[in-house]
Amino acid sequence: MEVAEKIVKLKKLMKERGIDYYIIPSSDYHQSEYVGEYFKGREWISGFTGSAGTVVVSEKEVGLWTDGRYFIQAEKQLVGSGIKLFKMGEEGVPTFIEYIVKNIGKEETLGFDGKVIATRTILDLEKQCKEKNIKIVGEFDLVGELWENRPTLPESQAFILGEKYSGEGTESKLNRIRESLEKENCDINIITSLDDIAWIFNIRGNDVLCNPVALAYALIEKEKANLYLRKEAVSQEVIDELLKDQIEVKDYFDIYEDIKHIEGKVLLDTKSVNYALVSHIRQENIIDQ
CA 15 to CA 228: how far, in whole Å? Predict the structure, then answer.
């Protein structure tokens, strides 16, 4: 499909779901700077291949926001697409958040895939649109519904990095995190940043080009920890090694069910933890790092 055709089909889906504005970022489920092919939905829908950018779609207009590294490239790649280029940082150019706040109508619906957008972004939007009483819908990956032959999630094997290379064992690192939980009077720490997880658990992978990380989530409690990895990417040897430190390996997407049953105070970073996860936690139980 050409970009213009993709946009038409996306707008049709938006109308069917009652969505007036739809955000498509460049991120993965972990707000990573670099992402795998599976997560390049913004590139697929717009034809713009730069590493950074955000697309906002409404019935009236489609915009792409990107920074000065990509102005010339974006202008060329957007020709004939019907997408308007918003040059970030230029005088008089609103951010995509400012654009939505200004243009979305009262009681209209803002949609996005909550797994690829940081919680802080949506909290800021909600706050600024409070008087408009907009509806937030973060459950639809509309690009994914349209994207035929979408690349699969990475399939590389995760492995343990020995302490002689990491410099500190996982048990020691977990104990330090648990000390912080005590100080903050929290029960659970949710960590979704891939480099943080790689460091804490001394685990490595090849799921992102030129980055030694594995796609993963972590829930750290006072007595145990859950590490969520794609089961097909984890050997029994790795599972057994992690169990020595009371770390249970669970399937990558199981966290979205487990999060619904969390009780107690939760320490997390709303700049990195995605909206789909945080939306299941009571606001009064969240301590933002």
Answer: 35
Q: Which residues contact residue 247 at a Cβ distance below 8 angstroms, ignoring those fewer than 6 apart? A: 170, 174, 201, 224, 225, 226, 227
What is the distance between the alpha carbons of residues 220 and 191, in angstroms, rounded to a whole number? 8
Q: Which tokens sit at 248? A: 């249970």
Least confident of 68-77, 97-106, 202-211: 202-211
13: number of CA atoms within 13 Å, CB side? Answer: 18
CA distance 202 to 166: 7
Q: Band the pLDDT of 188: cuts 50, 70, 90.
A: very high
Residues in the chain, how many? Answer: 289
Q: Under a CB-based contact definition with an 8 Å cutoff, are residues 200 and 283 in contact? A: no
- Express each pLDDT in 2-31 by its tens digit: 999 999 999 999 999 999 999 999 999 999
Going by C-alpha positions, the residue among 195, 155, 148 that lies closest to residue 36 is 155
Q: How many Cβ atoms are within 10 Å of 171's Cβ, its own excluded? A: 13
**HSE on the CB side for 287, CA within 13 Å?**
14
Question: What is the mean pLDDT of the segment spanning 237-255?
Answer: 96
Angle at 269 between CA 263 and CA 271, to 5 degrees: 135
The pTM of this model reads 0.95
In whole angstroms, give the CA distance from residue 162 to residue 187: 29
